Amino acid sequence: MGSEEKQGKILVLGAGNFGTALAGHLSNELWSVEILARSKIIVDGINQHHKNPKYLAGVSLSPSLKAIHEIDPKKINDYRAIVVAVPMQAVRETLAPFAKHLTIKPLLISAVKGIEIHTGKFSADVFSDIFGADIAGRSVVLSGPSFAIEIAQKLPTAVVAASKNAENSMAVQKIFHTSFLRVYSSQDPIGLEVAGAMKNVIAIAAGSCMGMGFQMNSMAALLTRGLAEITHLGVILGANPRTFLGLGGVGDLFLTCSSDKSRNFSLGFKLGQGMNVNQALASLGSVAEGFTTAKAAHALALKLKFEMPISSEVYQVLYENKPVRESLMDLISRDAKAEFSL
Fold first, then answer.
1. Residue from 227, 252, 255 nearest 241 by CA
2. Is residue 192 a part of any domain in this protein?
3. Strand-pair category, 157-162 with 181-186
4. CATH code where residue 297 lies
5. b/e string for 150-186 if b means 16 or more Cβ within 10 A?
6. φ, ψ for residue 194 (rounded to 5)?
7. Could you list the residue range(s) of the whole structural domain that residue 291 is in?
8. Do residues 146 and 251 touch, judged by C-beta distance below 8 A?
9. DSSP of 160-201, one letter per residue?
10. Can you spell out the DSSP letters for 193-258?
11. I need a labelling partner for 246 at 20 to 30 A (CA). Which of 31, 97, 182, 185 fits?
């Protein structure tokens, strides 16, 4: 996309790791970008030193990137696109001030991975509650195997932009796509949201597995059965099963379950090594979305009367103080059954 096509401002809501990486990426590509942060220290750090002092602190940001501490809700439609990159549990609170003002004019993009804990809803459902079904139906989910630091370092990465509105998914594709960040389009936002949320829960199990000293046979089994569990849930909720074979499905699951760059994997690893939940969470220094997603997913499974064995064991470890080793042994000792049946 030529610079003459890059008209209009882009707003990134959330200055955590991923929000900072996306804002930095877009500003490097000559978009006019503003990033909204709650912390004045972060705002000042980005504006004065071109670095986020708390997230991706070693990454230099474009001098053109502007950080703001607040925004006039009446001016929300001045933006060409709005990227929501806050933790899932903060989405409703962050967007509520814009409820009476946002129209279908800006591209509404969700870079959120999780399930709202008190409603069991994904980001598009929360958008619908706040802005109505028309705006939510035109929103776009941006997800896939993408550590924030690697995007910031311009390392080759591929993600997916999914929307029920094909025109909008392709518009987001054009905004973000570069020589090192490949963006594929999709019309299955439900599948992409389910995969993006649930892979964090499976990553906690994977980290626990490695923390206890289990090896690659165990990991291969866990990831494969985890993918089956995620796919089954997605299909129940209306997703296309093929989505889970792509970047947002198996790609993101593999990434999150195989690296200590993943906070969810790290949380599980610490639990597997013997830390209790509170100690492990405190040691992370930032949000592990899988912690709250595990609770929300457990409630959703009960509501749907659907068995999710791996997610259930993660929930019991995190919220019912079940020993990690006992959970893993309970998974291994489940009754034998056909592979393509949970």
1. 227
2. no
3. parallel
4. 1.10.1040.10
5. bbbeeeebbbbbbbbbeebbbbbbebbbeeebbbbbb
6. -60, -45
7. 197-332
8. no
9. EEE-SSHHHHHHHHHHH--SSEEEEEES-HHHHHHHHHHHHH
10. HHHHHHHHHHHHHHHHHHHTT--HHHHHHHHHHHHHHHHHHHHHTT--GGGGGSIIIIIHHHHHTS
11. 31
Q: How many domains does the chain have?
A: 2
Confidence of residue 139 (pLDDT cuts 50, 70, 90): very high
Distances (CA, A) of 299 to 83, 155, 268, 334: 28, 38, 21, 22
Residues 18 and 154 in one domain: yes
Of 187, 213, 242, which residue is a domain's last?
187
Whether 322 is catalytic: no
Please report, for the domain that includes residue 66, its CATH number: 3.40.50.720
Residue type, 303: K
Side chain identity at residue 52, one-letter code: N
Q: 83 forms bridges with which residues in the sheet?
A: 12, 109
Q: What is d(CA 93, CA 86) in angstroms, rounded to the nearest whole number?
A: 10
Average pLDDT over the chain, rounded to whole? 95
Instruction: Reply yes or no on whether the pLDDT at 336 is more than 80.
Output: no
pLDDT at 122 exceeding the cut of 90: yes
Q: Please identify, among 130, 152, 187, the residue that sits at the C-terminal boundary of a domain.
A: 187
CA 3 to chain centre: 29
Predicted pLDDT at 2: 53
pLDDT at 4 over 60: no
Q: Looking at the whole model, is its pTM more than 0.90?
A: yes
| Residue 84 maps to a domain | yes
* Nearest in space to 122 (alpha carbons), one of 60, 194, 203: 194
User: Helices (H), strands (E): how many in the chain?
Assistant: 15, 8
Establish if 341 belongs to a structural domain: no
> What's the rounded Cα separation, in Å, for the pair 167 and 145?
23
How many other CB atoms are there within 10 angstroms of residue 190's CB atom? 20
Length of the chain as a residue count: 342
148 near 15, Cβ under 8 Å? Answer: no
